Amino acid sequence: MRPVDKKIRRITLCLMLFGLWAFPAVSGAQTQMVPVNFSQLAEQAKPGVVNIQTVKTIKGGGRVFRHFFGSPFGNQPGLEDFFSPFEGLPRNRTESSLGSGFIIDKAGYIVTNNHVIKDADQIKVILHNDQEYDARIIGADPVTDLALIKIDAKELKPLKFGSSKNAQVGSWVVAIGSPFGLEQTVTAGIVSAKGRIIGSGPYDDFIQTDASINPGNSGGPLLNMYGEVVGINTAIVKSGQGIGFAIPSDLATSVIDQLKDGKRVSRGWLGVSIQDVSQEMSEYYNLDPNQGVYVAKAYEDHPAYEAGVRQGDVIISVEGVKINSSRDLTMTIANLGVGSKVNIEVVRQGKNKTFTVKLGERPDSIEDSALGEELDGFDDLGFMFKPLDKDLAEQLGYPPSIKGLVVIQIDPGSQAALSGVIAGDLLVEINHKRIAGISDYTGILRAIKKGQTAHMLFRRGNSQVFVVRFER
């Protein structure tokens, strides 16, 4: 080899080692860019990302009114007179908010978060070239915090969805949006984790990323290195730097397709009350650790019961897919079409049985399901309750005359999980109102508006009483 050739090889090697030279990595039919920089990806994706501005009327002044015209020091003695001149200001105020979104087709459909456009009186979309359009809401799904809006515009450049299933932990991702109102901002990071539960609802399945996501990024795309949308940026942890969450694209696309077709989002429904299988239950039923979901109750005249599933069964698979937790079962059934016939495998008295269940439609809220006095799944605070009966009272050491709701399970990562309440505690009052059954609980909570406080009185055993405070 000539000296000149050796010199060129050494220079090339140094450039590659220090990240100054990037070669494309080929994967199948696609070419992935090595992330020396993200300028090419950002340049291609930016035309598909939009800024969303909304105006809504806030009754009672809202968060902004309280922030600017209420005492910033709380209810401190001696400060009332200083802030009292503002008490006569109008109670109803308009509030502007910012968010992001992305175009999914040339017809003008745009995906964003439901909380970005919820209750908006006016929605304005600003494209990358500063053109502005009024948008209308096509549909929304508060459960997954997704919304679909539409503008009448031409020559749009939509983004394509990729599969969040293929987004591996440790892989590079890019977030584009309008943090703090700064349009078309690009941040990069990696997929930190998948399947995160943050207590936002029964379908938590978030992608965690350290790509910076800040207020205003909500609804914007999380892109892989092919420029495909693998997530919708949704939430941040206020106390944690570099911790953001995105809705997986595989969950979002089925919801968006239904909204685009003008349909109300529907989800599969078994009609069972479930709980995770404890270690003791695994040993009792001779199951593998963390295998299966226990059927606490199968409701009569609902799909699972009609197919033959009964209380005490342990569901271990759906259509051959293993079920390891209540969340697994909830997500799997929800993603199957209403009316689908699915094979449910259970363990009953040590033997495996398979039932074919024709799925119903999950009700919008548990109380609408007419299932009687038991909650199916976690509520929005993260509790799963069951009314206290004679047998439970005897097992847990409560007086036979007392009434209330027993905590049978708590959703990890929820408000309930941070409260100190544990399974077996008994809820007896909310804001000095007695709780005798599920209907009392749901009715009282429904009457507590956002921003107000729920003081919950619990008993633990036959002696300890304590109060837990929740902000709605």
UniProtKB/TrEMBL annotation:
<keyword id="KW-0732">Signal</keyword>
<feature type="binding site">
    <location>
        <position position="145"/>
    </location>
    <ligand>
        <name>substrate</name>
    </ligand>
</feature>
<dbReference type="InterPro" id="IPR001478">
    <property type="entry name" value="PDZ"/>
</dbReference>
<keyword id="KW-0346">Stress response</keyword>
<feature type="active site" description="Charge relay system">
    <location>
        <position position="115"/>
    </location>
</feature>
<dbReference type="GO" id="GO:0004252">
    <property type="term" value="F:serine-type endopeptidase activity"/>
</dbReference>
<feature type="active site" description="Charge relay system">
    <location>
        <position position="218"/>
    </location>
</feature>
<feature type="binding site">
    <location>
        <position position="115"/>
    </location>
    <ligand>
        <name>substrate</name>
    </ligand>
</feature>
<feature type="binding site">
    <location>
        <begin position="216"/>
        <end position="218"/>
    </location>
    <ligand>
        <name>substrate</name>
    </ligand>
</feature>
<feature type="signal peptide">
    <location>
        <begin position="1"/>
        <end position="29"/>
    </location>
</feature>
<keyword id="KW-0574">Periplasm</keyword>
<keyword id="KW-0645">Protease</keyword>
<protein>
    <recommendedName>
        <fullName>Probable periplasmic serine endoprotease DegP-like</fullName>
        <ecNumber>3.4.21.107</ecNumber>
    </recommendedName>
</protein>
<dbReference type="InterPro" id="IPR041489">
    <property type="entry name" value="PDZ_6"/>
</dbReference>
<feature type="active site" description="Charge relay system">
    <location>
        <position position="145"/>
    </location>
</feature>
<feature type="domain" description="PDZ">
    <location>
        <begin position="264"/>
        <end position="350"/>
    </location>
</feature>
<dbReference type="Pfam" id="PF13365">
    <property type="entry name" value="Trypsin_2"/>
</dbReference>
<dbReference type="InterPro" id="IPR001940">
    <property type="entry name" value="Peptidase_S1C"/>
</dbReference>
<keyword id="KW-0677">Repeat</keyword>
<keyword id="KW-0378">Hydrolase</keyword>
<dbReference type="GO" id="GO:0042597">
    <property type="term" value="C:periplasmic space"/>
</dbReference>
<feature type="domain" description="PDZ">
    <location>
        <begin position="368"/>
        <end position="439"/>
    </location>
</feature>
<dbReference type="Pfam" id="PF13180">
    <property type="entry name" value="PDZ_2"/>
</dbReference>
<dbReference type="InterPro" id="IPR036034">
    <property type="entry name" value="PDZ_sf"/>
</dbReference>
<dbReference type="Pfam" id="PF17820">
    <property type="entry name" value="PDZ_6"/>
</dbReference>
<dbReference type="GO" id="GO:0006508">
    <property type="term" value="P:proteolysis"/>
</dbReference>
<comment type="similarity">
    <text>Belongs to the peptidase S1C family.</text>
</comment>
<dbReference type="InterPro" id="IPR011782">
    <property type="entry name" value="Pept_S1C_Do"/>
</dbReference>
<keyword id="KW-0720">Serine protease</keyword>
<dbReference type="InterPro" id="IPR009003">
    <property type="entry name" value="Peptidase_S1_PA"/>
</dbReference>
